[in-house]
């Protein structure tokens, strides 16, 4: 069994190295060109239509507000990868990995935008009158390839079981380490909270995440900003270190073993993709339920999602870890995942460690809530609403099993299962890319949408 697990681990490592990074990177690049660099062309307009419009009444129909759809999607993406994944990228790829994390985030914006546009374009109402959508629906309705939709839905439904177990294990081990509470107690409490929220459907999840996500992000990023202001002089050095090491091999120093340029790019890309989930097809499931008058308008919210997740939260972690110097410590390579806690503790003492621990607990808890919802939607697509509701119990049981350490042998299969989810989604997005372009052109040239928003008519040039 051990030999088999090693073999699975090696295949996963290879797959999530050059092959999948190349597929995701090239797909994002192709869509960036196809859509005329949409993520760079209208930055002020995108901001005004998303974060700038949170106090305005949403346009069109949907089950949740666009902000609730975004915070639900962010609940899944803002997680352990932002806190423990970033220092791992720095340790194995050097500070230059942060630059490549930004690059893949900017390319990934076009991919995530396309997924969300398609999710809204091909969404439908379920038995409860809620809007549902995502890759399984655009594969079935947009491509007339239900078999691909079934493949995606089944693979994601199964993949999320070990995923929930791993998240349950992460939260229980963190609580045990900091507050000395038994893993199974944490598991039962987390399971009860998740049960209460997910059985309320996307509306309750939206209401919870709308409050939860901004608060937890503000606490964590706020702590990082305090460190930034304590260390304003370190900002130029931070960027200099990142840019200078993005294109040249990083030599060994302190506990850091040094990294070749290929490793730097690989770790930056891998962490960026893991963190923002572009191409995975999960976020569109949340965006499909949003109130909107046009698919492209909701697609703009998914671009902002990557800005918050990677450009802000991951960069905040990188700044704290690099400016504190903990990454060059003698034993830093032994446990890269502990570096964020060490860095915050260096600035804030014991309070810093508690701040990171509490942030991690809340990040992981919100991730569990939303991935249980995602999994239930796959079960609903495959077998109907009642089965979807019943399958939530399977995920909740997975939280408890994971919290007592049952995930250790399963996590090896996680990356392999993720590949089985990602590939059909990338195929579908590429096959439907012309439809994304048609909708984007329609949105930006119609008097009903963009031209109306910026107060221009077709007779005048819109900026």
Automatic annotation (TrEMBL):
It is a multi-pass membrane protein. It holds the Pfam family Na_Ala_symp. The chain crosses the membrane at residues 20-38, 69-93, 99-122, 143-164, 184-202, 211-234, 246-265, 300-327, 347-375, 387-407, 413-432. Keywords: Cell membrane, Membrane, Symport, Transmembrane, Transmembrane helix, Transport. InterPro entries: Na/Ala_symport (IPR001463). GO terms for cellular component: plasma membrane. GO terms for molecular function: amino acid:sodium symporter activity. This is Amino acid carrier protein. It comes from Rossellomorea marisflavi.
């Amino acid at each position: 069994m051990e030999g088999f697990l090693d073999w699975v681990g090696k295949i996963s490592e290879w797959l999530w190295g050059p092959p999948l990074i190349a597929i995701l990177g090239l797909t994002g690049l192709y869509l960036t060109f196809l859509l005329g660099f949409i993520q760079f062309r209208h930055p002020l307009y995108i901001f005004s239509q998303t974060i700038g419009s949170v106090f305005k009444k949403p346009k069109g129909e949907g089950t949740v507000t666009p902000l609730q759809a975004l915070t639900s999607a962010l609940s899944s993406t803002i997680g352990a990868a932002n806190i423990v994944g970033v220092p791992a990228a720095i340790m194995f790829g050097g500070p230059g990995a942060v630059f490549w994390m930004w690059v893949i985030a900017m390319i990934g914006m076009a991919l995530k935008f396309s997924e969300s546009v398609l999710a809204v374009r091909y969404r439908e109402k379920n038995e409860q009158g809620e809007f549902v959508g995502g890759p399984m629906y655009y594969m079935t309705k947009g491509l007339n390839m239900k078999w691909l939709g079934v493949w995606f839905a089944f693979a994601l439904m199964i993949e999320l079981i070990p995923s929930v177990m791993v998240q349950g294990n992460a939260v229980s081990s963190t609580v045990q380490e900091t507050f000395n509470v038994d893993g199974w107690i944490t598991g039962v409490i987390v399971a009860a909270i998740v049960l209460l929220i997910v059985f309320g459907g996307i509306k309750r999840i939206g209401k919870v995440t709308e409050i939860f996500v901004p608060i937890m992000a503000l606490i964590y990023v706020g702590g990082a900003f305090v460190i930034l202001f304590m260390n304003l002089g370190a900002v130029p050095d931070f960027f200099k270190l990142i840019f200078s090491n993005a294109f040249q091999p990083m030599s060994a120093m302190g506990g850091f073993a040094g990294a070749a340029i290929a490793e730097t790019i690989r770790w930056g890309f891998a962490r960026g993709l893991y963190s923002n989930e572009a191409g995975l097809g999960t976020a569109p499931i949340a965006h499909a339920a949003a109130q909107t008058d046009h698919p492209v308008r909701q697609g703009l919210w998914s671009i902002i999602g990557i800005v918050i997740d990677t450009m802000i939260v991951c960069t905040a972690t990188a700044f704290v870890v690099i400016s504190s110097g903990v990454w060059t410590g003698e034993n830093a390579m032994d446990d890269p995942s502990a570096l964020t806690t060490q860095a915050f503790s260096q600035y804030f003492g014991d309070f810093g460690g508690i701040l990171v621990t509490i942030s991690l607990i809340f990040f992981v808890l919100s991730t569990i809530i939303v991935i249980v919802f995602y999994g239930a939607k796959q079960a609903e697509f495959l077998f109907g609403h009642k089965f979807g509701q019943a399958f939530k119990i399977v995920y909740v049981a997975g939280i408890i099993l994971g919290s007592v350490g049952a995930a250790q042998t399963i996590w090896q299969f996680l990356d392999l299962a993720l590949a089985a989810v990602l590939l059909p989604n990338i195929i579908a997005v590429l096959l439907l890319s012309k439809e994304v372009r048609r909708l984007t052109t329609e949105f930006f040239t119609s008097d009903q949408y963009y031209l109306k928003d910026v107060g221009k008519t077709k007779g005048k040039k819109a900026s």
